[in-house]
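A.,

Following up on our hallway conversation. Structure tokens first:
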């Protein structure tokens, strides 16, 4: 016999490890003041928009240039994957507003910045880009800003749970 009894959220939450509850933290929480909620939401949505912009630029460069990146072996498919992933992760960040999504978005931006710098300075897969190529410097700056914004948002989302956990241990 099955019963459809609502389980209080505290009981469900207690069954999960603390770090999973932390990753599933959603912005904005009820513990924050109104101004803090607005600030965190601005950071989360700003980071989501910058991830979407990164995806747009990658897809634009992949197929709409006079010499599209889609014609470059290995780099072309990676640009396509990067563009699609950035769009999906940007949407995930903006829709869910959960810590795991914010961290995923920040990671995407950090990896994108690192790949761009390596591609220009050293080269990748037999191809080396230039700082003079279209969108290189502007994309670099916006992706750095996106990473910083999302990391700040992640810290703001995680802080109450981490602080409460550290105080309980004393």
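Then the amino acids I'd put at each of the 170 positions:
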């Amino acid at each position: 016999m099955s019963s459809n009894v609502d389980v209080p959220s505290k009981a469900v939450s207690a069954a999960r490890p603390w770090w999973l509850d932390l990753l599933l933290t959603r912005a904005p929480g009820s513990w924050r003041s109104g101004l803090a909620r607005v600030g965190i939401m601005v950071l989360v949505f700003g980071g989501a928009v910058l991830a979407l912009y990164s995806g747009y630029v990658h897809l634009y460069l992949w197929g709409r240039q006079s010499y599209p990146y889609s014609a470059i072996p290995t780099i072309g498919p990676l640009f396509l994957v990067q563009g699609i992933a950035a769009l999906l992760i940007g949407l995930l960040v903006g829709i869910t507003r959960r810590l795991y999504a914010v961290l995923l978005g920040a990671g995407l931006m950090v990896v994108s910045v690192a790949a761009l710098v390596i591609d220009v300075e050293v080269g990748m897969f037999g191809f080396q880009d230039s700082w003079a190529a279209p969108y290189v410097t502007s994309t670099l700056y916006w992706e750095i800003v996106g990473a910083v914004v999302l990391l700040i948002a992640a810290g703001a989302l995680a802080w109450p749970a981490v602080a409460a956990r550290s105080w309980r241990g004393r």
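Residues 106 and 151 are 6 Å apart (CA to CA). Curious whether your intuition agrees with the design.

B.
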